[in-house]
Amino acid sequence: VQLQASGGGLVQAGGSLRLSCAASTHRFSGFYMGWFRQAPGKEREFVAAINWSGGSTFYADSVKGRFIISRDNAKNTVYLQMNSPKPEDTAVYYCAATPRLPPARANPGGYDYWGLGTQVTVSS
């Protein structure tokens, strides 16, 4: 499975941005999806996850209430809607996938496939 993230760029604090991640598989609905991010000098951290149907979503406390993860299984795509971003949200954002339920959805080690990432820069 190949994952291609897009939609990153420069956004002002308080604005909005939507990231997309397209998967190269016809069995997209069989994959549990996550978004992670990594800022310079920091470890990769969990942002959000969504189950196979899209009926269950999970968020890091730092983005809860501001970001929304969703998926369109017909388009093999998962999204991350970033509302009211803050400068501290600046990072490279990665999408990740696994066909299993991750033992710990916030642990990058629980995901088998990763995209190359897309840079998001939030200006103050």
Give a verbal description of the structure.
The chain is mostly beta strands. It contains no helices and eleven strands. It has strands at 3-6, 9-12, 16-23, 32-38, 45-50, 57-59, 67-72, 77-83, 91-98, 113-114, 118-123. The mean pLDDT is 96. The strands form two sheets. Strands 2, 4, 5, 6, 9, 10 and 11 form a seven-stranded mixed sheet that branches. A four-stranded antiparallel sheet has the order 1-3-8-7, with no helix packed on it.
Low-confidence parts lasting 5 or more residues at pLDDT below 50? Answer: none
Q: Please work out how many helical segments DSSP would assign.
A: 0
- Counting helices, strands and paired strands, the structural category is mainly beta
SSE sequence, one letter per element: EEEEEEEEEEE
- Kindly report how far apart the N and C termini lie: 37 Å
Find the count of extended strands (DSSP E, 2+ residues).
11
Rounded to the nearest angstrom, the radius of gyration is: 13 Å
Portion in beta strands: over 45%
The pLDDT mean sits at: 96
- Categorize the overall geometry: globular
Summarize the biggest pleated sheet: 7 strands, mixed
The helix fraction, in percent, is under 10%
Sum up the structure in keywords:
124 residues, mainly beta, globular, four-stranded antiparallel beta sheet, 11 strands, seven-stranded mixed beta sheet
Question: What is the structure about, briefly put?
Answer:
The protein has 124 residues and is mainly beta.
